[in-house]
Protein backbone atom coordinates (compact mmCIF):
# COMPACT_ATOMS: atom_id res chain seq x y z
CA UNK A 1 0.00 0.00 0.00
CA UNK A 2 1.23 3.50 -0.79
CA UNK A 3 -0.45 6.70 0.38
CA UNK A 4 2.50 9.05 -0.08
CA UNK A 5 3.15 11.74 -2.64
CA UNK A 6 4.02 10.98 -6.25
CA UNK A 7 5.78 10.83 -8.62
CA UNK A 8 8.17 8.25 -7.19
CA UNK A 9 10.72 5.76 -8.44
CA UNK A 10 12.14 2.64 -6.77
CA UNK A 11 15.81 1.78 -6.35
CA UNK A 12 17.43 -1.45 -5.16
CA UNK A 13 19.54 -0.75 -2.09
CA UNK A 14 23.21 -1.60 -2.45
CA UNK A 15 23.33 -1.55 -6.24
CA UNK A 16 21.48 1.74 -6.76
CA UNK A 17 19.74 0.14 -9.75
CA UNK A 18 16.29 1.48 -10.51
CA UNK A 19 13.57 -1.15 -11.03
CA UNK A 20 10.25 -0.85 -12.88
CA UNK A 21 7.41 0.35 -10.64
CA UNK A 22 3.78 1.32 -11.16
CA UNK A 23 0.72 2.31 -9.17
CA UNK A 24 -2.16 -0.16 -9.30
CA UNK A 25 -5.62 -0.15 -7.80
CA UNK A 26 -6.29 -3.41 -5.94
CA UNK A 27 -9.82 -3.66 -4.49
CA UNK A 28 -9.99 0.10 -4.09
CA UNK A 29 -6.53 0.49 -2.53
CA UNK A 30 -3.65 2.33 -4.15
CA UNK A 31 -0.64 0.01 -4.26
CA UNK A 32 2.90 0.45 -5.54
CA UNK A 33 3.93 -2.69 -7.45
CA UNK A 34 7.59 -3.27 -8.39
CA UNK A 35 9.45 -5.77 -10.55
CA UNK A 36 11.88 -7.37 -8.09
CA UNK A 37 14.35 -9.67 -9.83
CA UNK A 38 17.41 -11.58 -8.63
CA UNK A 39 16.03 -11.92 -5.09
CA UNK A 40 18.10 -14.60 -3.30
CA UNK A 41 16.22 -17.86 -2.70
CA UNK A 42 17.21 -17.83 0.97
CA UNK A 43 17.33 -14.14 1.70
CA UNK A 44 15.84 -10.84 0.73
CA UNK A 45 16.44 -7.65 -1.22
CA UNK A 46 15.75 -4.13 0.00
CA UNK A 47 14.14 -1.50 -2.22
CA UNK A 48 13.83 2.20 -1.49
CA UNK A 49 10.96 4.42 -2.67
CA UNK A 50 12.40 7.78 -3.73
CA UNK A 51 10.53 10.95 -4.59
CA UNK A 52 10.70 12.32 -8.13
CA UNK A 53 10.56 11.05 -11.68
CA UNK A 54 13.00 8.27 -12.45
CA UNK A 55 14.02 6.32 -15.53
CA UNK A 56 11.19 5.47 -17.94
CA UNK A 57 10.52 1.77 -18.63
CA UNK A 58 8.48 0.28 -21.45
CA UNK A 59 5.07 -1.20 -20.64
CA UNK A 60 4.91 -4.80 -19.40
CA UNK A 61 2.57 -5.73 -22.23
CA UNK A 62 -0.28 -4.78 -24.52
CA UNK A 63 -4.03 -5.44 -24.63
CA UNK A 64 -6.14 -5.39 -27.79
CA UNK A 65 -9.50 -7.10 -28.43
CA UNK A 66 -9.11 -9.78 -25.75
CA UNK A 67 -5.44 -10.46 -26.47
CA UNK A 68 -2.92 -9.77 -23.70
CA UNK A 69 0.71 -9.99 -24.69
CA UNK A 70 4.00 -9.65 -22.82
CA UNK A 71 7.55 -10.45 -23.86
CA UNK A 72 7.06 -14.00 -22.55
CA UNK A 73 3.38 -14.91 -23.01
CA UNK A 74 0.36 -14.15 -25.08
CA UNK A 75 -3.11 -14.95 -23.88
CA UNK A 76 -6.61 -14.65 -25.34
CA UNK A 77 -9.49 -14.01 -22.90
CA UNK A 78 -13.11 -13.86 -24.01
CA UNK A 79 -15.70 -11.41 -22.63
CA UNK A 80 -16.82 -13.95 -19.99
CA UNK A 81 -13.32 -14.24 -18.50
CA UNK A 82 -12.63 -17.66 -20.06
CA UNK A 83 -9.08 -18.17 -21.30
CA UNK A 84 -9.13 -19.58 -24.81
CA UNK A 85 -5.39 -19.56 -25.46
CA UNK A 86 -2.19 -19.23 -23.42
CA UNK A 87 1.01 -19.42 -25.44
CA UNK A 88 4.54 -19.49 -24.02
CA UNK A 89 6.68 -17.56 -26.51
CA UNK A 90 9.93 -18.55 -24.75
CA UNK A 91 9.29 -22.28 -25.29
CA UNK A 92 8.59 -22.62 -28.99
CA UNK A 93 5.11 -21.02 -28.93
CA UNK A 94 3.79 -23.83 -26.71
CA UNK A 95 0.01 -23.72 -26.19
CA UNK A 96 -1.00 -24.42 -22.59
CA UNK A 97 -4.80 -24.60 -23.05
CA UNK A 98 -6.20 -27.91 -24.28
CA UNK A 99 -8.26 -27.64 -27.44
CA UNK A 100 -11.54 -29.11 -26.11
CA UNK A 101 -12.63 -26.12 -23.97
CA UNK A 102 -11.34 -22.86 -22.51
CA UNK A 103 -9.83 -22.62 -19.05
CA UNK A 104 -11.49 -20.56 -16.32
CA UNK A 105 -14.90 -20.98 -17.98
CA UNK A 106 -17.36 -20.27 -15.16
CA UNK A 107 -20.45 -20.35 -17.33
CA UNK A 108 -22.69 -18.45 -19.69
CA UNK A 109 -23.24 -14.73 -19.44
CA UNK A 110 -22.70 -11.41 -21.14
CA UNK A 111 -19.47 -9.66 -20.31
CA UNK A 112 -17.27 -6.71 -21.05
CA UNK A 113 -13.48 -6.42 -20.96
CA UNK A 114 -11.64 -3.37 -19.70
CA UNK A 115 -7.98 -2.64 -19.14
CA UNK A 116 -7.85 -2.08 -15.37
CA UNK A 117 -4.12 -1.53 -14.75
CA UNK A 118 -1.22 -1.15 -17.16
CA UNK A 119 2.36 -0.07 -16.70
CA UNK A 120 5.97 -1.24 -16.71
CA UNK A 121 5.41 -4.04 -14.15
CA UNK A 122 2.06 -5.62 -15.01
CA UNK A 123 -1.06 -5.57 -17.14
CA UNK A 124 -4.50 -6.46 -15.70
CA UNK A 125 -7.69 -6.98 -17.70
CA UNK A 126 -11.08 -7.02 -15.94
CA UNK A 127 -14.02 -9.06 -17.26
CA UNK A 128 -17.37 -8.01 -15.76
CA UNK A 129 -20.03 -10.67 -16.42
CA UNK A 130 -23.81 -10.66 -15.86
CA UNK A 131 -26.07 -13.68 -16.28
CA UNK A 132 -25.37 -17.12 -14.82
CA UNK A 133 -23.23 -16.47 -11.75
CA UNK A 134 -22.57 -12.71 -12.05
CA UNK A 135 -18.87 -12.24 -11.50
CA UNK A 136 -15.68 -10.31 -12.09
CA UNK A 137 -12.54 -11.92 -13.41
CA UNK A 138 -9.11 -10.32 -13.39
CA UNK A 139 -6.24 -11.70 -15.48
CA UNK A 140 -2.76 -10.26 -14.92
CA UNK A 141 0.48 -10.71 -16.88
CA UNK A 142 3.85 -9.56 -15.53
CA UNK A 143 6.99 -8.07 -17.05
CA UNK A 144 9.53 -10.72 -18.12
CA UNK A 145 7.73 -13.48 -16.20
CA UNK A 146 5.98 -16.70 -17.22
CA UNK A 147 3.27 -15.98 -14.65
CA UNK A 148 -0.47 -15.44 -15.01
CA UNK A 149 -2.67 -14.45 -12.07
CA UNK A 150 -6.39 -15.24 -12.33
CA UNK A 151 -8.86 -13.88 -9.77
CA UNK A 152 -12.57 -14.78 -9.94
CA UNK A 153 -15.07 -13.10 -7.62
CA UNK A 154 -18.64 -14.44 -7.65
CA UNK A 155 -21.12 -11.63 -6.97
CA UNK A 156 -23.89 -13.88 -5.58
CA UNK A 157 -24.21 -17.00 -3.48
CA UNK A 158 -24.35 -20.51 -4.92
CA UNK A 159 -27.30 -22.76 -4.00
CA UNK A 160 -26.26 -25.88 -5.91
CA UNK A 161 -23.10 -27.77 -6.78
CA UNK A 162 -21.11 -25.97 -9.48
CA UNK A 163 -18.04 -27.43 -11.17
CA UNK A 164 -15.46 -25.89 -13.47
CA UNK A 165 -12.52 -27.32 -15.31
CA UNK A 166 -9.18 -25.93 -16.32
CA UNK A 167 -8.21 -28.06 -19.34
CA UNK A 168 -4.51 -27.30 -19.43
CA UNK A 169 -2.44 -29.16 -22.00
CA UNK A 170 -0.19 -30.95 -19.50
CA UNK A 171 -0.01 -34.76 -19.39
CA UNK A 172 0.43 -35.05 -15.57
CA UNK A 173 0.09 -31.65 -13.87
CA UNK A 174 0.91 -30.87 -10.25
CA UNK A 175 -1.61 -28.36 -8.89
CA UNK A 176 -1.21 -26.30 -5.71
CA UNK A 177 -3.75 -23.84 -4.32
CA UNK A 178 -4.01 -21.54 -1.35
CA UNK A 179 -6.78 -22.06 1.16
CA UNK A 180 -6.97 -19.91 4.28
CA UNK A 181 -3.23 -19.29 4.19
CA UNK A 182 -2.17 -22.92 3.59
CA UNK A 183 -0.63 -23.90 0.26
CA UNK A 184 -1.89 -27.40 -0.53
CA UNK A 185 -1.06 -29.90 -3.24
CA UNK A 186 -4.42 -30.67 -4.86
CA UNK A 187 -4.41 -34.48 -4.79
CA UNK A 188 -5.32 -37.26 -2.36
CA UNK A 189 -2.75 -38.66 0.05
CA UNK A 190 -0.01 -39.80 -0.30
CA UNK A 191 0.54 -37.76 -3.51
CA UNK A 192 -1.15 -34.64 -2.12
CA UNK A 193 -2.57 -33.11 1.04
CA UNK A 194 -6.24 -34.17 0.64
CA UNK A 195 -7.41 -36.92 3.01
CA UNK A 196 -8.89 -40.09 1.51
Would you kindly provide a brief summary of this structure?
Helices cover 0% and strands 44% of the residues.
Task: Describe this entry's structure for a reader.
The protein has 196 residues and is mostly beta strands. The chain contains no helices and 16 strands. A five-stranded antiparallel beta sheet has the order 6-7-8-9-10, with no helix packed on it. Strands 11-12-13-14 form a four-stranded antiparallel beta sheet, with no helix packed on it. The chain has a three-stranded antiparallel beta sheet with strand order 2-1-5, with no helix packed on it. The chain is globular and about 50 Å long. The protein starts with 7 loop residues before the first strand and ends in an 11-residue tail after the last strand. The mean pLDDT is 92.
Protein traits:
196 residues, five-stranded antiparallel β-sheet, globular, mainly beta, four-stranded antiparallel β-sheet
Rounded to the nearest angstrom, the radius of gyration is: 19 Å
What's the SSE pattern? EEEEEEEEEEEEEEEE
- Please state the overall shape, judged from the principal axes of the Cα atoms: globular
Which sequence of strands runs across the widest sheet? 6-7-8-9-10
Helix content: under 10%
Count the helices. How many?
A: 0
Assign the structural class, choosing from mainly alpha, mainly beta, alpha/beta, alpha+beta, or little secondary structure.
Answer: mainly beta
First-last Cα distance: 41 Å
Tally the beta strands: 16
Mean pLDDT: 92
Strand content: 35-45%
Any low-confidence stretches, pLDDT <50, length ≥5? none
Largest sheet: 5 strands, antiparallel
Amino acid sequence: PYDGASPVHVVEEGTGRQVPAQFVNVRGRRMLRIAADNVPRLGYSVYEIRQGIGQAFSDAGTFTDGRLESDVLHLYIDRRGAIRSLVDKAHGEREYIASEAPANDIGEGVGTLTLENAGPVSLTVLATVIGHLPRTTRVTLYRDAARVDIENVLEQGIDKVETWSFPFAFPDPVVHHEEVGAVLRAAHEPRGQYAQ
